[in-house]
Design brief:
Oligomer: single chain
CATH topology of the largest domain: Archaeosine Trna-guanine Transglycosylase, Chain: A, domain 4
CATH class of the largest domain: Mainly Beta
Helix content: 25-40%
Strand content: 15-25%
Shape: globular
Bound molecules: iron/sulfur cluster
Number of domains: 4
Largest sheet: 8 strands, mixed
Radius of gyration: 30 Å
Number of strands: 30
Length: 659
């Protein structure tokens, strides 16, 4: 989960009813004062589905022996998962109003483990559980030291289970088998006893007399649905006030920005809540769904099912080019190289809106401020400069994930089944933003992973990269972020992995400029040469973005003079042999012209006809021609430059060489 820095959610727990309470104050059901949950901010907490609960129990059994999972006492009561900022999956598990453990995925080991917390230890003690593995026994003389916050040294360890490896999460138990601490093992089992040095790096410690709940297994178990129906019931007043505000937001937005309105539906929970809210507000709006071609089959099926059930007017947009064809040109997308969002999502959205709502449309989109800092900054109503015909509005902007889920449960609506298989976010299944932990979950879906695995493997071999480039998820970055640099270091593979992410595919783009500037009559100039194979007609057409294009007398060349150009010679001169000259009265002016010129060249060479720029032109001067690439109608273009902006071609055509 990314680092999100906008506040914290205030979540409580009623111990009388054993349910989370979103609003503070006395429990509306039993009247008792709830407990405030101490969790890691921001707290975009979601319900734990049966799959999640089974996973926690399974991990506990695997780490500490059979019965450990059941001893945590999470079966049959509400469990919450709180995603924490971390390089990969890190979910706090909340039960009974306390964080009892965290589920943590290690990118290095490619495995998931439970990190026990003090309240989890209390539950194990309360149930009388004694671990069979993953434990060390603490000498009574060492107990006061670890209670004082010190780590457990080997001389203070009298025994341990077999099979412990450095880096394992281990329980520290006393002579009676009760859990008094947990932490990270620093040694193999064989070196744990009778040696020197640190045995366990302690995370928390507590005396068993002070750390034991009753026996949680004695509480009556309820079915998962029944449990959550109860949570909804207790939180009903909060939900009603949320819905009331959202409904009035929707009605106001339609009054101000309508009358044409639609819902953007991705198949995820936030857009489902948004769709349901528009219907609560009394509207039956058309629904737009962009099928990127790399959606989960379950998502596409779910969208169709919802459309059928609600008798929706469903408008489906698709990219002009298949992702698996484009990836051969662009290379694998990265978190910092998201050409696919532009070509497979933004482009089809622009085309869909231009086709169905040429005069503009208010679109209700399920975006929430808790998802990212960018989304928080956007506010509840926004204009996307790249989809000018669209005004976006989110009635769930201030909702948490738990608000969204409780509302969906309240409505009894059908939701995407992938949430019940451990997925937290539903988007393109191979999105580089996905945690590595989610890769295993793909096996529980209908996704055919073979083409993607093949492409990554071909890429790896072509670039002579180690297998870890795929296995440990390095392929998800162009420039490695600090945590991946660290991981490469820990694996001793800096040399093999550090620079490889930065290699640009650069499959096209062969233009170069001379380094430095020369003087000319009234300013400076810079010379360059274009790929002789470049499609000259398209290049000249796109030069209009910079300014009016005219012929250079007596040659087959053309020149460009932007609006208000004061120099005698033009800003750009381009000749049929590929040579090109840029002029300006200062270095900054040359740089500015060159930046635009490079955009024009990259678009000429790499346009994939996604249509993003077409939607940006208010003069209707751009169109995709019969070869599927962009062209300008010179008579309509007013040379405003507004179409320069996000463009997949610019993401992958190589920057010019300088010689
Ligand atoms: S130039 Fe081509 S690839 Fe770039 S935004 Fe326009 S249509 Fe898309
Ligand atoms: S936005 Fe339209 S009018 Fe403006 S430069 Fe681009 S093509 Fe020309």
């Amino acid at each position: 989960m990314p680092q999100v820095s906008h506040g914290n959610t205030d979540l409580h727990w009623c111990n009388g009813c054993d349910v989370p309470l979103i609003r503070g104050g006395a429990c509306p059901s039993c009247g008792s004062e709830p407990l405030r949950i101490k969790h890691t901010p921001p707290g975009d907490i979601r319900p734990g589905f049966p799959h999640d609960i089974d996973e926690v129990e399974h991990l506990a059994d695997r780490q500490w022996g059979p019965g450990a999972g059941r001893a945590l006492g999470i079966h049959g009561s509400p469990v919450l998962l709180n995603p924490c900022p971390a390089p990969d999956r890190l979910d706090e598990v909340i039960a009974g109003g306390h964080v009892i453990c965290s589920v943590s995925f290690s990118q290095k080991e490619l495995s998931t483990m439970l990190l026990l917390r003090r309240d989890g230890g209390a539950r194990l003690n309360g149930s009388g559980f004694t671990p069979e593995k993953g434990y060390v026994v603490c000498d009574p003389t060492a107990v006061p030291f670890i209670m004082d916050g010190m780590n457990l040294l080997s001389p203070g360890i009298t025994d341990c289970s077999d099979g412990i490896l450095p880096g394992d999460e281990v329980l520290v138990i006393d002579d009676d088998g009760r859990v008094i601490a947990s932490g990270l093992s620093r040694k193999h089992s064989r070196d744990m006893v009778g040696t020197r040095g640190m045995g366990v790096k302690i995370r928390w410690s507590a005396l068993p007399e002070e750390n034991s709940t009753g026996n949680p297994q004695e509480q009556p178990e309820r079915e998962w649905k029944e449990t959550w129906d109860h949570v909804v019931d207790v939180n009903r007043p909060h939900l009603h006030s949320l819905v009331k505000r959202a409904v009035s937001f929707i009605r106001d937005a339609v009054k101000r920005y309508g009358p044409k309105a639609a819902v953007s539906y991705s198949g995820g929970k936030d857009s489902l809540a948004t769709l349901l809210l528009t219907r609560d507000a009394g509207f039956e709006l058309p629904v737009m769904f962009v099928d990127t071609g790399i959606e989960f089959p379950e998502t596409v099926e779910h969208v169709r099912a919802i459309a059928g059930e609600m008798e929706l007017d469903l408008i489906v947009g698709r990219p002009r080019n298949d992702f698996f064809e484009l990836v051969k040109v662009f290379g694998p997308p990265g978190r910092d190289y998201r050409w696919c969002c532009k070509s497979c999502k933004l482009g089809p959205t622009v085309s869909l809106i231009r086709e169905h709502f040429p005069d503009g449309v208010l679109t209700f989109i399920g975006q929430r401020r808790y998802e990212s800092n960018t989304r928080e900054r956007k506010g509840a109503v926004w204009k996307n400069p790249w989809v000018p015909q669209q005004t976006g509005a989110s009635p769930v902007q201030d909702w948490t994930a738990l608000d969204v889920w409780l509302y969906i449960f309240l409505k009894g609506a059908r939701y995407n089944p992938l949430y019940e298989r451990g997925f937290q976010r539903i988007g393109c299944w191979l999105c580089p933003s996905c945690d590595l932990a989610e890769r295993e979950l793909l096996n529980l879906t209908k996704v055919d992973q073979e083409p993607w695995s093949r492409i990554l493997e071909e890429e790896r071999k072509m670039r002579d990269l180690p297998e870890e480039w795929i296995e440990k998820g390095f392929h998800r970055f162009k420039k490695l972020p600090p945590h991946m640099v660290r991981l490469a270091g820990e694996m001793g593979m800096e040399r093999e992995l550090l620079d490889t992410g930065r290699i640009s595919k650069g499959r096209k783009g062969s233009f170069m400029f001379v380094d430095g500037y020369g003087s000319c009559a009234d300013g400076l100039s810079q010379e360059g040469v274009l790929n002789p194979g470049m499609e000259r007609k398209r290049f000249i057409s796109l030069l209009n973005i910079i300014g009016p294009v005219t012929n250079i007398e007596g040659t087959e060349g053309v020149e460009v003079r932007p609006e208000g150009w004061s120099m005698k010679r033009a800003a750009v001169e381009s000749y049929s042999d590929g040579t090109i000259v840029i002029r300006g009265s200062s270095e900054d002016e040359i740089k500015n012209v060159r930046r635009k010129l490079e955009s024009v060249i990259k678009r000429t060479e790499g346009c994939i006809g996604c249509g993003i720029c077409v939607g940006r032109c208010s003069s209707d001067a751009l169109h995709i021609d019969e070869s599927g690439k962009v062209m300008i109608s010179e008579e309509k273009c007013i040379h405003c430059g507004m179409c320069l902006g996000p463009c997949p071609a610019e993401s992958f055509v190589r920057d010019p060489y300088t010689v």
